[in-house]
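#help-structures
NK: newbie question, is this the right format to request a structure? protein is Replication factor c subunit 5
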Amino acid sequence: ILDEADAMTNDAQNALRRIIEKFSENIRFCLICNYLGKIIPAIQSRCTRFRFGPLDSSQIMPRLEYVIEQEKIKVTEDGKKALIELSGGDMRKVLNVLQSAATAYNEVNEDTVYSCVGHPSKADISNIVNWLLNFDFCSANKMIHELQINKGLALIDITYEVHSY
């Protein structure tokens, strides 16, 4: 099993191609990648592709609760919801953010999850929309910029969330 196979150099992929050709009768390889276009055509042609879509919350929640229980992590309901929302259906991301938040904070809640990943919270977006609608441009821009600096937020994340609001 080769995870993150799309991170392999072309030379490494060509070497792997030769290994696959040489031992294809008695060995099977499983290549896992995020970007199929980064895998050379010679390997792609020797593989069967399986595409996995994002998981929904009903699939993520049982495993998340199992990990929380096994690791004895203090997580609030809004923390679980934030983990799932930010993951975009990626179980690895849920577990990585959970681990980071649990390491950095005594309790994992919505605020600590958003703070841990540097993503604007719903409250931040609500404030930004309020500023944009109720203040002149210069004042709103200044407040948004201060929020960016204080919380380490990326403008692209703010823009995306305001658009989705």
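mod (FA): yep, format's fine, and the tokens are attached above. The radius of gyration is 21 Å.
NK: thank you!
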